[in-house]
Amino acid sequence: ERIAGRWPDHAILGEEAGVHRQDSPYLWVIDPLDGTRAYASGLPVWGISVGFLENGEPQAGIFYLPATDEMYWADTEGAFRNGEPVQPLPLIGPDDPLSYLLVPSNAHLVYEITFPRVRSLGSTAAHLLYVACSTAVGALTRRVYLWDVAGVLPLLRHCGVRLIYLSGDPLDPRALLENPRLPEPLLAARAEYLEAVR
Q1: What is the pLDDT of residue 77?
Q2: % helix / strand / coil in the chain, to the nearest 5?
Q3: Are 35 and 151 in contact (CB under 8 A)?
Q4: CB of 140 within 8 A of CB of 101?
Q5: Of 138, 188, 195, nearest in space to 164 by CA
Q6: What DSSP line would sit under 71-97, residue for residue?
Q7: φ and ψ at 12, to 5 degrees?
Q8: What gap in Å lies between CA 108 and CA 115, rounded to an integer?
Q9: Of 140, 65, 149, the residue nearest 106 (C-alpha)
Q10: Of 137, 188, 196, 152, which is closest to residue 62 (Cα–Cα)?
Q11: 84-85 and 79-81 as β-strands: parallel, antiparallel, unpaired?
Q12: 125-159 tens-digit pLDDT
């Protein structure tokens, strides 16, 4: 209601409400609860995601984790965590004993994963932002929706994280405007580690 009241010509895509006004170049993509199962289980890794796209290009995004009171946001100028500039940690390579890959909770049923350390924390957006902040070397997603990733896309871009489909094709948010479900799972990592993680 607030977005529609302030910018009545903007479109809104939400997990719960579908699309309103498909004819606008401005699109707000909202996931009111990313990590529903983690939330329902009493775990702290879940959040609220809002992304803003212009002509299908990510311009700004916010991901807020209420349980830990962490607010991440980014636009075309910079990225921030609780008001402070995001400073990714020194890169940890795939061979480092501290590196790990974030995966969906059912990854063991779907994939044969040879990476030595995997974790599942419950939220696709949180998995991706941990890659952006260099706490995880990479993340593998399920076949998720645009609202699962839109809020963190500007943060990923700012931190040098690349998103590709498992086939190797890059993620193009513009291709998801008609159908917001991704055609295949995504892999996220810093450019220099993407192929090694893949």
Answers
A1: 93
A2: 25, 30, 45
A3: no
A4: yes
A5: 188
A6: EEEEESS-EEETTEEP-PPPP--TTST
A7: -135, 130
A8: 12
A9: 140
A10: 152
A11: antiparallel
A12: 999 999 999 889 999 999 999 999 999 999 999 99
